[in-house]
Each structure stands twice: as C-alpha cells, then as structure tokens.
Amino acid sequence: MARPTLAPADAAKDLTGWSVSSGDRPAIERALKFVDFNTAFAFMTRVALKAETMDHHPEWSNVYNRVTVLLTTHDAGGVTDLDTTMARFIDDAAKALGGE
Ligand SMILES: C[C@H](O)[C@H](O)[C@H]1CNC2=NC(N)=NC(=O)C2=N1
C-alpha cells in the first residue's frame, strides 16, 4: 500500500528552516551552512548513516561548508512521513554541529 503523501507546505510548516521545493516535484528543501568543509561532511556522514537505517535517502549537494537538502519520497511520488522524520533528524544533526 503506497504511503499517504502530505502537502509540502503542511510538512514544511511544522519543521525548522524547511521550505517547499522550488522544483517541479512535491518536496521540501533546506539550505545549511557550517563552519567549514569538515563539519559539513561530518553532518552528511551522520545523515547518510540514518538514511541507510531508514532506507530513505536525501537528494543533496555540498559546496565547501554548505549543504542543500531536498526530501521527497520517490516511491510515493510526494512528501511523506519518512521525509518529515528525516527532516527532524537533519535539524537535530545540524544543530549539534552548529549548522544554520
Ligand atoms: C529499493 C529501496 O528500498 C528504495 O528505492 C528506497 C531507497 N531510498 C529512498 N529514498 C527516498 N527519498 N525515496 C524513496 O522512495 C526511497 N526508496
């Protein structure tokens, strides 16, 4: 049974720093900035390990100390509770590493 999807605006409003993706797919996005590349990559490592345990992976890019993250559930064709769970984990990991 496919997971129910959420309106991206509804998903984003309950989260810190997330917005509706400007792209053509229903998704939420957040841009993060860290003190340096090492810290940005430490953040990505923590999220990567969580993504593997959840079997739910972000679409992201990294330029030096910046990481932009897009979350959507490919199998559902939209934003689901997997994305909001991952978003909350990302917010906690970013906060722990001084990201903003
Ligand atoms: C085969 C594997 O379990 C699926 O492709 C998983 C992997 N990670 C995933 N990540 C995301 N964001 N959406 C998915 O639908 C998804 N599906």
TrEMBL record:
<dbReference type="GO" id="GO:0008124">
    <property type="term" value="F:4-alpha-hydroxytetrahydrobiopterin dehydratase activity"/>
</dbReference>
<keyword id="KW-0456">Lyase</keyword>
<dbReference type="Pfam" id="PF01329">
    <property type="entry name" value="Pterin_4a"/>
</dbReference>
<dbReference type="InterPro" id="IPR001533">
    <property type="entry name" value="Pterin_deHydtase"/>
</dbReference>
<dbReference type="InterPro" id="IPR036428">
    <property type="entry name" value="PCD_sf"/>
</dbReference>
<protein>
    <recommendedName>
        <fullName>Putative pterin-4-alpha-carbinolamine dehydratase</fullName>
        <ecNumber>4.2.1.96</ecNumber>
    </recommendedName>
</protein>
<comment type="similarity">
    <text>Belongs to the pterin-4-alpha-carbinolamine dehydratase family.</text>
</comment>
